Amino acid sequence: MGLIIIYSAPVGGLGEAVASLLLCEGVVPSKFRMLALPDQFLGAGALPTLHDRYGISAEKMVTSFKEWLD
Questions:
Q1: What is the pLDDT of residue 66?
Q2: Which CATH architecture has domain 2-69?
Q3: d(CA 64, CA 55)
Q4: In Å, what is the CA distance from 42 to each residue of 9, 46, 47, 51, 60?
Q5: How many CA atoms does the CB half-sphere of 55 hold within 13 Å?
Q6: Helices (H), ranges, 1-70
Q7: Which of 3, 20, 27, 30 is most buried, most CB within 10 Å of its CB?
Q8: DSSP states of 50-63 as a string?
């Protein structure tokens, strides 16, 4: 089983909570990946530009998933 968690908030939070819950329940995914914004000050700009810059645009996520699955 593989698991991908995507959210447009700083890394940590939701992804870490899901990972912790799974491990506490004895569920260990064969692969685990979080895609989220970096935990730092982000530059200003239009959302599509920012999503692309930080790897959470649809195109960047598809590329990332394909690399992850190989």
A1: 86
A2: 3-Layer(aba) Sandwich (3.40)
A3: 8
A4: 11, 12, 12, 11, 18
A5: 11
A6: 13-24, 47-53, 58-69
A7: 3
A8: HHHHTT-SHHHHHH
